[in-house]
TrEMBL record:
Taxonomic placement: Bacteria, Pseudomonadati, Verrucomicrobiota, Opitutia, Puniceicoccales
Cross-referenced PANTHER family: BIOTIN BIOSYNTHESIS CYTOCHROME P450, P450, PUTATIVE (EUROFUNG)-RELATED
Native source species: Pelagicoccus mobilis
Protein name per the record: Cytochrome P450
Family: Belongs to the cytochrome P450 family.
Gene3D superfamilies for this protein: Cytochrome P450
GO biological process: cholesterol catabolic process
Alphabetical list of Pfam families matching this protein: p450 (PF00067)
Amino acid sequence: MSKCPYHDPFKEAREKGPVLETEFDGDPVAMLVDFKAVRKACRDPKTFSSDAPFRIPIPREEDVRTVRQYPFEVDPPEHADYRAIVEPLFRRPTTPEYIEKMEDLVDELVRDAAGRDSIEIVREFAIPLQSKGLTLLLNMPMSEADIWIKWGTHVFRDESGVSKGHEMEAYTNSLFDKAEANPGEDFFSHLTKAEYRGRKLTREEMQGYANIAFAGGRDTVINAISMVVAYVAEHPEALDAMRENPKLIISGTEELMRYASPVTHLGRHCPVDTDVHGTKVKADHLISLNWAAANFDPKIFKDPEEVKLDRKPNPHVAFGNGIHNCLGAAHARLTIRTLLKKLCELTSSIELVDFHRKKEVEAHYTRENAFHTLNVKMAPATP
């Protein structure tokens, strides 16, 4: 067991009740910070709707994209039909062929990292791993990853906060044009051939799928990779335990995802005036589902600030819950699981050289769940 080096900024709020009354973008937001309250709200899309384009992510995204994200910003019953269109592609990470490709990819990156004097994990390891891994998920040529790597940690905003969403939308539009002219077996071709309730998808709908594919698992996966590397560098006993008992890699993946909780929270929209555990939320206002706070709820997770690689049960909500459970969860899990496996196999030690943590600063909390930079030295495993 090891102490989590990242504090739980929602501890006091959670002790006071399930709702933290806060604000985002100048509007009041009722943030759910209790595990059971979060999960219950996830399963009540009629009261807490996702049918609020650009407003479900927090901060809002009207200034960085022009299309609704599918199936992310759609409610039942339409949601199930939109999700079914792409679900077969997102189940591929469970197949032996896909797993082998991911292992080859991570093997190459870890060997390269272990052959250097030191490596900056965010830009030289995590971004390439996320970008190249995405080519597997979207069934695209590996050469496309060279373009995606240049986008940095976020496809919508650079470090200065300037929007670059139009660049990504122009790029995906060109891929749809190519797919329509010469269809193949990739994600974009799949969408150009797909039908929704007996009709072809519109270009706007196709763009909505592409938008979430590139944005939804970008910074979250990059942050998760970086935080996992930081954790095992600070806690070498964790890798030792997994080397001795490889079964801990599976349960450890879930525990490290709980601990990292790379998505702090997401919004839901209240169509009518709603009482949320005693807090009055006006029609057309938002609540927030705080995954990070739920994942540290001591009523569900004993000693939540301790990382227990063998934690069972571990009903964390790092990938959401209910009908909107993350489409890319299988791919993200495989990425982290394979990373841990290869770090066990191919390194003898990982030394933390220096780092600069990234802070998420909002009106009523400050959370450290990512890095601007993270330099480590990986020593190769001895023959």
